[in-house]
Every structure is written in C-alpha cells, then in structure tokens.
Amino acid sequence: MNEKRKILAVTGARSEYDILYPVLEKLQQDADFELQILVTGAHLSENFGSTIRHIEEDGFTIADKVYNLINTDQKIGRVISLGHQISGLAQTFDRIKPDVILIVGDREEAISVSLTGAYMDIAVAHIAGGDVTKDGNIDNSVRYATSKMSHIHFTILEQHSKTLLKLGEDAWRIHTVGNPALDRFLSLPTLTKAELSTQLGFDVTHDEYLVLIQHPIITDFENEGKHIRATLEAVVSLGNKCLINYPNSDAGNHVIIEAYREYVTKYPQLFLFQNLDRLTYVNLLRNAACLLGNSSSGIIEAPSLGLPVVNIGARQRGRVSAGNVIFVDNDTEQIKAAISKSLTDKSYRTSLRALTNPYGDGNSSNKIVEVLRKINLDSNLIHKNITYTTHE
Amino acid sequence: MNEKRKILAVTGARSEYDILYPVLEKLQQDADFELQILVTGAHLSENFGSTIRHIEEDGFTIADKVYNLINTDQKIGRVISLGHQISGLAQTFDRIKPDVILIVGDREEAISVSLTGAYMDIAVAHIAGGDVTKDGNIDNSVRYATSKMSHIHFTILEQHSKTLLKLGEDAWRIHTVGNPALDRFLSLPTLTKAELSTQLGFDVTHDEYLVLIQHPIITDFENEGKHIRATLEAVVSLGNKCLINYPNSDAGNHVIIEAYREYVTKYPQLFLFQNLDRLTYVNLLRNAACLLGNSSSGIIEAPSLGLPVVNIGARQRGRVSAGNVIFVDNDTEQIKAAISKSLTDKSYRTSLRALTNPYGDGNSSNKIVEVLRKINLDSNLIHKNITYTTHE
Amino acid sequence: MNEKRKILAVTGARSEYDILYPVLEKLQQDADFELQILVTGAHLSENFGSTIRHIEEDGFTIADKVYNLINTDQKIGRVISLGHQISGLAQTFDRIKPDVILIVGDREEAISVSLTGAYMDIAVAHIAGGDVTKDGNIDNSVRYATSKMSHIHFTILEQHSKTLLKLGEDAWRIHTVGNPALDRFLSLPTLTKAELSTQLGFDVTHDEYLVLIQHPIITDFENEGKHIRATLEAVVSLGNKCLINYPNSDAGNHVIIEAYREYVTKYPQLFLFQNLDRLTYVNLLRNAACLLGNSSSGIIEAPSLGLPVVNIGARQRGRVSAGNVIFVDNDTEQIKAAISKSLTDKSYRTSLRALTNPYGDGNSSNKIVEVLRKINLDSNLIHKNITYTTHE
Amino acid sequence: MNEKRKILAVTGARSEYDILYPVLEKLQQDADFELQILVTGAHLSENFGSTIRHIEEDGFTIADKVYNLINTDQKIGRVISLGHQISGLAQTFDRIKPDVILIVGDREEAISVSLTGAYMDIAVAHIAGGDVTKDGNIDNSVRYATSKMSHIHFTILEQHSKTLLKLGEDAWRIHTVGNPALDRFLSLPTLTKAELSTQLGFDVTHDEYLVLIQHPIITDFENEGKHIRATLEAVVSLGNKCLINYPNSDAGNHVIIEAYREYVTKYPQLFLFQNLDRLTYVNLLRNAACLLGNSSSGIIEAPSLGLPVVNIGARQRGRVSAGNVIFVDNDTEQIKAAISKSLTDKSYRTSLRALTNPYGDGNSSNKIVEVLRKINLDSNLIHKNITYTTHE
Fold first, then answer.
1. In chain B, which residues have their Cβ closer than 8 Å to the Cβ of D90?
2. How many other β-carbons are positioned within 10 Å of the β-carbon of residue C317?
3. How far does B65 lie from chain D, in Å, by closest CA?
4. Is C341 on the interface with A (CB under 8 A)?
5. Residues in C touching A86 (Cβ below 8 Å)
6. Apex CA A312: angle with CA A310 and CA A317, to 5°?
7. B2/chain D closest Cα distance in angstroms
8. Residue B185 located in a structural domain
9. In this predicted structure, what is the pLDDT of residue D383?
10. A185 within some domain
11. Backbone angles phi, psi at B342, to 5 degrees
C-alpha cells in the first residue's frame, strides 16, 4: 500500500514548536505524509502570547484546539491542565486515527500524549527523550515516564540514547538525530545590525548588548522573586543594554514578569519583549555579546554561534554543554563576574569560535522524516515487550 | 515533631484494594498514622459490583469519591477516565495535603496518582512496581512510568527491585516486601467444605470443582469472545462443576460476561458469581481442584495453597511462578490437557504441596508500615535526582 | 451568499435520535445544508446497546464522538457526565463552527449543548421545549433552562409554544411543528403478523400480546425495584405474552433490568429485547393489544395507531394525551384493572380508532427544515433581548 | 431535630463574594448553621488578584478549592471552565451533603451550581435572580436558566420577584430581600480624605477625582479596545485625577488592561489599582466626584451615597436606577458631556442627595438568614412542580 502516512503533531508551547517546526515543514512538503497539528496548552492563552498564530501563519492544518491551561500559578494547576488535556487529545485521536503522533520534550503535553497514545494503541514518536536536567525538577520524572510509554525515540545526544537503552527501551526504537531546532536556527537569514535595530525599534548597532531569558523553576517558584532580582541587579550594575525575553508559562512566571516590569520602568537600558519573531530572535543572539539566564538556547544553539552564555541557577545544570557556558548560582556577584569574563576575557572568547556543537549539524529533521517514512507500523511497534526483566 | 503522618490511600478496583487492605488495617490501628481512603474507578460502578461497600464495611474513612469511569468498552474510555480522575485526585490532595499517598499496581489509578503527586510535590509510595507482564499489554508501560514518577517503591519480588535499580531508581527508595494480599489471604479463617457450600448456596463437599477467572486483555479485546469460548468449551467438555468469578472492568469484559451468561443458561454445572466475599473466595480456592483463567491469584496466592493452575492466554505470561502453573494458549485442546494433568497427575499434584511462595510470607504489610513510619519526609524524598545519566 | 448552512445535530440517546432522524434525513438530502452529527452519551456505551451503530448505518457524517457517560447509577453520575460533555462539545463546535446546532428534549445533552452554544455565540435550535412532565422530575427544570438559553424553538404542541411565550421567549423564535418522530413512525412499512413473528424469532400471529417499556425515574430511583415488580406481577397474573423493551440509561435502570432478567427466567410468556430495530418496534406496536409502562410512545405515537395504553407511575403524568391512555399508580391491582379494560372494553377500544393525534400529522420535519433554511443567522438571533421585564 | 443546617456557599469571583459576605458573616456567627465555602473560578488565579486570600483573611472554612478557569480570553474558555467546574463541585457536594447551597448572580458559578444541585437533589438558594441586563449579553440567559433550576430565590428588587413569578416560579420560593452588598457597604467605617490619601499612597484631599471601572462585554469583546480608548480619551481631556480599578475576569479584559497600562504611562493624572481593599474602595466612592464606566456599583451602591454616575456602553443598560445615572454610548463626546454635567450641574447634584435606594436598606442579609433558618428542607422544596402549564 502506498497510502499517505497520517502524522499528528501535538504542541503546547512555543519552545516545543520551535523544535518541531523543521520536521513539520519537511513533512508538509513530502507527498508520503499527511500532516495535521493539534494545538493546546500555552499556545492558546493570551497571557503567553497566543502563540498559535505562529502555527497559523506557518500554514499548517490545525486538527483541533484543546483549551486546557488552568489560569493559576499554583502547582496544582499544571496537573489539572494535564488531566483535562487528555480527554481533548483522545477525542481528536479517535476522530483522526493518526498513524504516528509526534511530540517533544518533557512538558505536560509530552506525558499526556504518550499516555493517550499508549492506551489507544497509537504509535507515539517522542523527540528529546533520554535527556536529564539536574536538581529538583519534575521534568526528569515526566521525561522518563514519557519515554517508557512512547514507541519511537528521536534523541538529541548520543548519551541520551544510551540512557534510553539503560531504561530498557529497544535499540531499534532509538534514533540519535540531534536537535531539529538547530536546523532552522542555522538556516535562517542573517540580518545586519542595522536591520536588526529596525526590527527591534531601537539602535543596537554599536552595542555590546546582553540578552536575558529566565524561566521559572517549578519546584522552587517561591524563590523566583529573589532570584530574578539577583540577576537584574547584576545586569543594571553594568552599563550594557539588556534585551529581555518573556519567560515561559510555568508556575512562577508571573513573579518574573512583575520584576521585569518594575525594572524596565526604572532602567532605560532594559528592553522587554513578549514575543520576538524567530528571525529577530536568532539575529539578536548572533549579534549579542552574552546570553544570560537559564534558556536552553544557551546550551543548544549558542555553541553554533560561538556565543558566551552565563547560565544562572539550577535550570540546565547537568546538561551537556559545549564549553561556552559559565554556570553560576542565583547570586549577583557571581553573575557579574561571569558576565565580565564573557565580555572581556579574550582567550575565552576566542576559544568559543572553534566549538563543535554536540547538539547537531542542522540535519536532524531529515533524519526524523526518513524514520517516519520507513518504520513498520505494526503491532510490534505498538506493543512494547520489555524483555530484559523476564530473563532473570 | 510527633505529629501523625497523614496517609492517603487511593484505590480504584477490588483487585488493588485486596492488596492494600492488610496495610490499611495496620495503618488504621497505629497511633503514628492518620489514614484516609480516596475511592475511585470501578469501585463506584454498579456494573462492577459497587465494591466501595467493602471499603465502607471495613470501616475506613473515605476522603472523597472520584467518579471517573467512562461507560464504554472502547479503548478510548480508559484514558478519558484517567484524565478525569486527575482533577478529582488533585482536588482531594490539595485539601488534605497528605504526607504520603499509597497506590498499587499498574492500572489507571497508579499512573494518575503518581502523576498528580509528582506535579504537586507530594510523596507517592507505589506497591508492586518493577513487575512485568509479558506480551501485548499496556500494563508494563504504565507500571514503569508510574515507577519513574513515584518516590517510594514497595516491590513484591527481589527481581522487581533489581528492575527498578536498572531503571535508575535510587536503591534507598526500593523495599522488597512481598505481596501484602498474601498477609490477609493466609490469615483468613478456614471454612469446612460444608460451610463453604452453605456460603455458595449449593453443595461442593464431594466435588473436584474448578474455579475460572478470566480478565480481558486490553490490547486484544477484539478476540475476547473467541478466547472465552475456547475456555468454556474445554470446561464443559469435562464433567466437573466450575465456579466462575466475574472479570474486572477492563475493556472487553462485557463480551466475557455475555459468554458466561449464555453458557450458564445452558450448562447446569457452571455457576457465575459477581462479587464473592473474600472469606468465601479464599476458601473456594483452598478447596478447589484447579484454578483456570488468567487471574493473578494463580501466580501469587495459589502457591501457598499448593493449588494447580492453568493460566490461559497472554495475561500473566512472563511473571515469576512457583511451579504450580501450566501456561497454555487460548486453545480448547491445550486447556483440556492442562486441566486433566492438574486433576490427575499425582506426582505433579504432590510436588505442589512443597512449594515455597516467592511472593511472600504473610509479613508484607508490617514491612510497609515500618518504612512509612521512619522514612524522612523531606525534599530529598520528593525531588528525584536521576544522577546516573549525568556521570557520562 | 448562497453558501450551505452548516448544521450540527447532537444526540446522546436513541430516544432523541428517533425524534431527530426524520429531520436529519431531510437535511442530508437537501443541497442547502451541510449536516454533521456529534454523537455522545449513551450512544457510545455497550451497556446501552452501542446505539451509535444506528447512526453509522443510517450513513450520516459523524463529526466527533464525545465519550462522557460516567459508569454509575448514582445521581452524581449524570451531572459529572454533563460537565465532561461540555468540553468535548466545545472542542467540536470550535473546530466546525456550525451555523446552527440542533438538539432535542430535556436530557443532559440538551442543557449542555444549549449552554455551550450560548457561551460560544452559536445559534441553538431546540426541539420539544415548553413541554412539561408532572411530578418529581428534574426534566422540567432542565427543559426550561434549555429553552431560556436556546435561540430557535421547535415545539410539539400548541400549548408548549404558549408556555415558552410565558417564559418570555420571543414569538418569532417559536415554531409549533409537532413531533418529528411521528413522521418516520407513520411512514415505516407495515409488516404482517407473520413477518413480525419472523423478526422477533417467535410466533405472535395469534396473540393478544402486551408491550412493556418502563424507564427509571431519576428522582425516585430508590423505589424502582418495588415499582417494576408491581408491574411484572400484574403482567404475569394475566396469561398474555408480554414483549419487554430495555429501559433507557437513567440512574436506576439497572434495577429494572435485573428484575426483567429474573422474571424472564421464571415466566416463559415474557420476552426481553435490548435493542429492537425501528421497523420491528413500530410493527410490534401496530399489532399490540396494549402498551404498558411509562414510555412516551404511549402518549405520542400510540394515538395514531388507536392503541390503548396503560401508563404506570409518575412519568408522563401531566402530559397532553389523546384519550388512549389510562394513568395508574405503581400498584398491581390498578395495573391489572387497566389492562383488562384495555383488552376487553369494546366501546373504549372502538373510541380509540377515531382519535386525532395532537402530536402531529407526519409533516414536522419538513416544517423544521424550512425554518432552518430561511431564518436570519444574525446577531439578532444570537443575542436574546429579554425585554418584558424592563418595561416595568 | 435541632441539628445545625449545613450551608455551602460557592463563590468564583470577588464581585459575588462582596454580595455574599454579609450573609456569610451572619451565618458564621449563628449557632443554627454550619457554614463552609467552596472557592473556585477567578478567586484562584493570580491574574485576577488571587482573591481567595480575602476569604481566608475573613476566616471562613474553605470546603474545597475547585481550580477550573481556563487561561484564555476566547469565548470557548468560559464554557470549558464551567464544564470542568461541575465535576469539582459535584465531588464536594457529594462529600459534604449540604442542606442548602448558596450562590449569587449570573456567572458560570451560578449556572454550574444550580445544575449540579438540581441533578443531585440538593436545595440551591440563588441570590439576585429575576434581574435583567439589557442588550447583547449572555448574562440574562444564564440568570434565567439558573432561576429555573434553583429552589429558593432571594431577589434584589420587587420587580425581579415579579419576573420570577412570570417565569413560573412558585411564589413561596421567592423572597425580595434587597442587595446584601449594601449591608456591608453602608456599615463600613468612614475614612477622612486624609486617611484615604494615606491608603492610596497619594493625595486626594483637594481633588474632584473620578473613579473608572469598566468591565468587558462578553458578547462584544472585539470592540473593547476601541471602547475603552473612547472612555480614556474623555477622561484625559479633562484635568481631573482618575482612579482606575481593574476589570473583572471576563473575556476581553486583557485588552482593557493593556489600554490602562498604556495610558497610565503617558498620563500622570491616571492611577491604576489591581485590587483595592473594601474599606478603601468604599471611601474612594464616598469622596469621588463622579463614577465612570459600567460597574454595578454605579447602579446599586452609588444611590446611597448621592454619587453621580456616568454609565458607558451597553452593560447595566436596562437595569433599574435611582436617578443618579447618566447612560451614554461608547463615545468620547457623550462621555465628556455627561461627566461635565455630573461635576458642574448644581441642581442635578443637589437632587442626588435625596435619593431613595431601591436596592435596599442594609438589612438584606438578615432577611436571607431568617429564610434559611425556617424553610422546610423537604422533597417539596427539591422537586419543583411547574404546574401552570398543565392547567391548560
């Protein structure tokens, strides 16, 4: 049979969508596939920038919108959102009957999709399993649980694949492909500093500017206020312009946003953006002097740019980095020192230009598409035999 | 501090409750603990015998009833039920703020509790992780995922503990305790055959009777009708009385129940029970000539009774058994042959009397209670550091 | 613009679907409309006969299946089911963006659809508003609330329209059309008694047989067991065959079904059917000597057949009837007397042949289709101005 | 029996809570009652000021928190929130088994509570039924539907009671009590202008200041941006200080908040408050020169203060007002003219001092408590007989 394979991608936040996008773009253009997108979670909230519009602008077919995000910062909110998401997902899966569902990462969407797929006997392909985030984070538990219920694994690093093997996943289900987000990142056009300034609405052509992206830590959101202030104090004590991007939708993001609003009012060197378009964002990093905060961009994309990164606090700790990242605590003095080194230590800066990025070479989405084209969609794929425990 | 530890046990089906009961009974009587039970799932459905009444009769405090079971046999029903369950659980957890939540097994309740606990930073103690059921069953995926999100593991077999270690769980979180259901099973009073006959409402004092318990297989429920008929044909071809117990609430159980009703009408040697009380059930097994079907009783309790078991079909395959189980396919001839051997092969029957039961010695619930009494309820317990992957 | 009008019909039980069907059939064949069906509630449960298969067999396009029915007989089950239904409905409405949603009656589906339509600014056309069921029934509250939130009213009786006017509904929104179920009922082919016997699987050619349909009363389900036994005792005390149809899915139906199973085993004159096809059902009534129970068939369809009806208990009390109905309490003696009169009182039986049926003339569905074709779909339709209270 | 009557009040937004509070305070102090509060909706969202803290500070027992508010401004969000709310409410109702549930108004909470109570056979007492808001508003539909499913009606105005009678509600269920919010409003201590200035953090002792409160209109939220700007342009064209209070949580509130933030940055005469405490708010109105916008405060409380009100746009149109309200469109010139008249027309201002407030005399909560103390809690209360339609 040469029927098209029905792929349903599920996305709940812009961070996932950015990883998915290069894969979706290729699937969309490929006659072997029929692609639809289920949009849910933070994408559908004005409080998080209504990022569904990016998906609409990109021209994909939206299968359904599953509104599930509970309007609260309390921990209970995430899991109630997850519970409500499941019935919406199931309704769509039942209608469309996809051959494969595609999902990324370690957020509520990942676990709810893998659960729903597992119970409904639909193949789930999971991108970015086997990763680990160190210290106090539910993300690891959710990511592992997602892997145990998924049928195809697209990992980012070789050692993530090894982790999945240790977890008892079959080798034939695991494909080390790198991070698809890099595909797009590396292929986006380059803006001049002048063009970038036009996009931003103010001049950065002569600036050694900083970029700050700090997401809340779900397991420690009580300290978000103190932490973000430690960072902001470090930033304003230096003279450089700092362009700040909104945090994601995790509990505690409110506190961070409030702090940004307060500091932006007081310090004209600070600029706050709620939703930068991708082209602007990439070129912002390409021209930045240093990236601050705890965004995965510092780990994953920055090495390809030779960009120095100051990673602040527990988030991203324990992840493989290419040598361009200084890890510091939520401490103003440590942050200041790390920024200074990043801006002024010439041998450090020089060393960053020669980095090899362990997160990929810009070809990840092709690798994923080829697996999705060729993998046997049979009961062997769906019914996982976890055999290693039975040999004893 | 010597405040009582608040334990919330969650149960969604009688099979779980039977495992939990000996633990609950001890916690209830222990001044160090304050115990409540959240009742959900099949317990609240008349179609599954309204088994909440057992919990009420046992005198436990019911924290909340979470009605979530969708009235359908379709696969989609289980996962929608699971999704709805989460918001109910979360509401109760948020109100009660238990120190530890206790859950058993690999059903929807297990994964929904572990997810909700993980997102809400409440310690989850999981009984019966690390187990494996061979072939075609979502139970494995769900059980592993549950383990990856739980904080304390009470395993039944030593090799289950080893499996959890391989899955990256910390050794200090894992306690091999055996199966608590055995505690109660072994301690229940013995009825004479005459007393048993009175309970049943018909005479079995001179019968070499069979007991049949066959649960549906969620991943293969399309074949339930064929499979149960294969079993029933084998049973009726022999002359023995056969006492049949209702299947559990998994998708496909309807088909099994319909077949039972049809055969019971035609064959007076068959007797169908919807909800046997525990005392009757245990003594039914103590006096049975052979147990048929795919109930875990054949694996776990039967060895302590020296009872021969014919396990039919994929369910229970791959589980450790003590030598009293003949595994056969859903094939009438195979089933007949295995029953015959079980009834007539003297050396086989003799060998069963000397079995050691790998599933425990009747002391499991005490072991669990002692761990719950002493374990530190701190952030180290809640925040799982999955460190083995970061050493590379 | 002459775009097709998108109609989404929602149905949750066979009783509604039977009323909707003649309308759906006409919409389906009409080039001015594009019709889809959302299937939910009892249709999706094997316990209620999986009646979605009728909709599939009838060849309609199913927009989505919303699995929502909680598996319990407790009162809480219906409202939880209703709550879960809403998010499923909303997801479908948001995807399809129908011009008009069509709904019938006073069940959970009616109120959940009207609520969802009202909040989402989508026109809801409600069939069978303004009706009243006397004594002890939530149906009235739900039906009135549904009317207050619906935008177009198709009523069955002239006095139902008057009731809606009193409730403050605009006259232009109200259309007295009769009961569409009659359209199909009257147009179905006539089977001979011999053909009917073949359908049933046993002979009724020479029988003065009874038909029994008794639904539970949600507000009094504790007495269902006593009530149904009162009826069954009356039936078996007479010699006539009695053909029994399953009750609907309301709380308490279990008790009725159990009683049926018990009596059917004991009395060979009783015959129990779970899901009669429509042709058989209609001809069953055409040839029946008397209809017993509390089905609306006795009120609505029976007059067109001149069929005597014994309506037992509170259900249907207070509804307009054509003179063919004897209303009795749940009392064996009263029931027996009323059956006797129905079977033997010649002048009574003769009078029934000349009845005019107030529930319609078989043309209701055409009237509904014409309104749906012509009504202005504008904000005046959607935004209800309830003006009569402001004039004071 | 003299057992305490169990009252469960449900509140989802501060506006309702302010109406409920005087009743709750009295029930709390009364030995005949046992009071608990179920908190849900906007109370639990940081985006709406986490107003649950007021309830906690007031010292009431919180029965459960039902997190249900979907994080979106789209219309679909409200009804999905409502659906999810129902299962949470039902879980609590089932656990507590209240004698009476108390609810206010026409928001999602009102309809979801009345539905859940009706299906679970629990008496629902509804405050503020029979009211009407003119033009384009779902509130009327929801309020009427709520009344049709509630068992006791506490109305605010005599004509609201008449409306309920016309709707077919029994006279004995209807009690005209006035608006309880006035009880508290009238009894709160008076601050001097100096004390008020201290509370506000800036001086208003010599100011003829305006107060602006504008809520979104759910059926017209696409025009919110234009409308709020029309108002703000009028305000800034005059010199007066204007103290602005945040809108409620209805869809479209975001647009209003954004406009406020923009104007506040540009115009130092504008002051924006997210959550004024009640004492400050009342004294703010007592000392204000004019109240603008579309808050119900202008209709209900302002007459007791002789405060001139400019009501802008469709919200509140059609409500009974005492003569202190000028109704204008969302038009800058009209708004300016009405403010000018309110500030400078001496005979108009003088006439306001002599108003009688039709919304009550400060004794409403006592009246409600007395009904709750004495009403028979029997099946006659629960089972509504809507008889007027059956007489025809």
1. 67
2. 17
3. 7
4. no
5. none
6. 100
7. 26
8. no
9. 86
10. no
11. -65, -35
Same domain flag for B197 and B315 = yes
Residues B148 and B250 in one domain: no
Residues A167 and A227 in one domain: no
Q: What CATH number is given to the structural domain containing D339? A: 3.40.50.2000
Query: Do C118 and C208 fall into the same domain?
Result: no
Give the Cα separation of B324 and C280 in Å (integer).
53
pLDDT in tens, A296-331: 899 989 999 999 999 999 888 878 888 999 999 999
Tokens of A88: 């919406």
Is the alpha carbon torsion for B167, B172, B177, B181 positive or negative? negative
Contact D75 C120 (CB under 8 A): yes
B128 and B257 belong to one structural domain? no
pLDDT of D138-157, one tens digit each? 888 999 999 999 999 999 99
Model-level pTM? 0.84
Residues B141, A120: C-beta atoms closer than 8 Å: no
Q: What is the CB neighbour count within 10 angstroms for residue D274?
A: 10
**Domain count of the fold of chain B:** 2
B392 and A162 within 8 Å at the Cβ level: the answer is yes
Structure tokens at D302: 């302002």
Chain D CB contacts of C84 below 8 Å: 83, 87
Residues 6+ apart with CB under 8 A from A378: none
Q: Are residues B11 and B56 in the same domain?
A: yes
What pLDDT score does B219 carry? 74
* CB spacing of A86 vs B85 below 8 angstroms: no
Q: Give the tens place of pLDDT for each residue, A249-283.
A: 777 888 999 999 999 999 999 999 998 888 999 99
Q: Which domain does A90 fall in, by range? A: 5-179+360-391
Residue type at C57 in one-letter notation: E
pLDDT tens per residue across span B144-191: 999 999 999 999 999 999 999 998 999 999 999 999 999 988 889 999
Residue A47 lies in a domain: yes
Please calculate the CA angle B234-B236-B237 and round it to the nearest 5 degrees.
65
The answer as to whether C184 is a domain residue is no
**C33-40 and C5-11 as β-strands: parallel, antiparallel, unpaired?**
parallel
Smallest CA-to-CA distance from B232 within B204, B206, B258 is with: B258
Residues found in chain D = 392
* Confidence (pLDDT) at B350: 93
Q: Does A132 touch chain B (CB under 8 A)?
A: yes
For chain A, positions 77-116, list CB contacts with chain D under 8 A: 77, 80, 84
